[in-house]
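User: I'm putting together a teaching handout on how multi-component assemblies are represented. Below are the sequence lines for each component of a complex, exactly as they appear in our records. Could you produce the 3D structure of the whole assembly as C-alpha cells, so the students can see both representations side by side? Please keep the chain order the same as the input.
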Amino acid sequence: MGLNMAKVKVELCMGSSCFSRGNSKTLELLENFVKENNVENDVEIEGHLCLGRCSSGPIVRVNNKDYENIKAECVIDLIREELIK
Amino acid sequence: MLEINNQFTHLKSKVYATVLKCFFNGTLEEDIDKIPFWIIPKDTDPSRCCIYKERAMVRYRILAFLGINIEKDDDEMKPLSDYYREVISKQMKPLPVLTTISTACSACPQDQYLISDACRGCYARPCLANCPKDAIEFINGKASIIQEKCIRCGKCQEVCPFNSVLHRLVPCEGSCPVDAIKKNEKGFVEIDYKKCISCGKCSRSCPFGAIVERSSIFPVLQILQSKERTTAIIAPAIDGQFPGTLGQIKTAIKMVGFDDVVEVSEGAELTSINEAKELEHRIKRGDKLMSTSCCPSYVEIIEKHLPKLNAIKSDTLSPMAYTAQLVKERDPNTKIVFIGPCLAKRVEAVKLKTVDGVITFSELASMFIAKDIDVKEVQEADLGDTHSFEDCRDFAISEGVKGCVIKRMEDPSIVKPYNIDGIDKKVFKMLKVIDKIPSKGNFVEVMVCDGGCINGPGTIVKPKIAMKLRNGNTQAITKAMKKERLY
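Assistant: Of course. Below is the structure of the complete assembly, with chains in the same order as your input.
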C-alpha cells in the first residue's frame, strides 16, 4: 500500500440524515483503517455539511466520484483499490 | 371526548377565520372589537343565557386565538385592540398551552351515579345485593342511591337489567389522564400546570368551551410578514385533513406565504433508523423494555409524573426535531414552523429551540379560509423524492411508529413489540408499573391520543374519514366537510 503518490480524497456527508444512515459508522471504520495501516499521509478525510441528497444517502465521495447509499465496508474496499492503483 | 362536529368547533373556526381575514386585510386593529358583534348579531337565538354572554364568549375565543393567558391576564375593561397591539409588539410566554375561562365553566357537580325512571323496582334487585357500601335504598318501590355512602364504583350500573343507572360525568376531569383538572372553591375549573401534560383532552371534552388552547399563530403570522425565509414542516397526520392530495396541500401552504414545505416524515425516517439502532443496542445490553419517544405528551408524563420511565424511553429525537435539523442544515437562515395536530409539540418546541413556531391543522384551515384557498382546486406541487420515507407517513397512526422502526432493524426477530394506543386514567395507572408487570414485549409504542396523531386535538377531520382520504378516497372528505362546515 501507499504506492500511489497522490492522496486519496474521501469526502463524507455529515448531515444528520447521512450520518444516521451509516456515515457515522463509515467514519469510524475509516479512521481505524487509516490508523491500522499507517496511511495517514495517503488518505485525506473531509466532512461535508448536508449535500442536499438525503433520501439517496449516505453519500460518500471518493476522488471526486460520488457514491450513493453506500455501506461502510464498501467504502474501505474502494479506498483500498484506490491506494493500490 | 366530544365529537369533532359540534357547535363549539364551528364557532371556533368562524372566530379564527374572521380574525385572520381582518388580519390579512390589515384592518384587525380597528375591527377586532367589532368581531363579537359580527359573529353574534342582535337577532341571534342564544344557546347560553343571552346574546351578551355569547358575545363575551366570542371575546374570550379571540383572546385565546391571540395567545393571551386568559386565566392570568383577562381584564374586561381592556379593549381587544389593546391586547392585539401587545401581542404584535412583544413576545409572549408560549407556555402553558392551555388556559381556562371561568365565566364559561358551568361548574359541573362531582360525578354521580343516579337511578333513572327506567328502574322497575324488580324483585331480584341485583343493585342492592351488589353494592359494597349499602348505598342503595328503595323508595316507593324504586331504587335510589344514598349519595353520602356511594363510592362511585359503578357496580350497580353493571348489574342493572334495565340499564336504569346512569353515570353523570364531569367531562374535563374525567378525560384528564393525570388528574390535573381541579375545581376551585366556587366550583369552577382550574388546571394544575405542575401536573398538566398538554394533551388537550380536557379542552376537547368540555361542552361549554371553558378550557381553550392559547394559539401561537400570531408569532407565526409575524414571521410570515417579516420577509424572512420560512419553511413549514408538516406532520405526517396532515394527509387526510384537507380535501386534496399532499401535493395540493403543499401548494396551498405556499400560497399562505411559506417559502418551502418539508414533510416531517423525512425526519421520521431518521427517528426510525436511530430508534432501530438504539433498540438493537438496548436488547443486546439486556434491557427488558424500550419505549418510543415521539409523543411529546408522553414525554411530559415521564417528566412530570414518572421520571423512572426515563430509563425505558428511547433517547432518539422526535421526527419534528430531526426534520428541523435537516432543514437547518440545508438552509441555515430559514425560520421553521411546525404544522401539526398536537398541542404538546409546542412544549417540545420550546425545549428544542430549533423550531420557531407551532400551529395546528385547524389554524392552518382558518388561514386557507381567510385567504380563500380551496385545496382541492390548487395545482399539485412536486413532493420530490419521497421513496425512502413514504412509509414513515404512518407515524401519524397508532402502530405505525413501531412498524417503521422494526422494518429498519438488522435483526427484527429479537423484537417483541406491543403498543399503547391512547392514555386515559386507567392506562396511566398501568404506566406507573409498566416496568414491573409481566412484560408483553420488549418494545412499546406509546401514543397519548387514541388512534395516534390523526386523532390529535389540532385535527379537523374525524379519524375514520381522514383514513379514507389517506387511502385515496378524496370524495369522502369533500362530502364530510360540506356537512360539518369545518373547512
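A couple of points students might notice: Chain A touches chain B through eleven residues (CB under 8 Å). Residues 28 and 72 of chain A are 9 Å apart (CA to CA).
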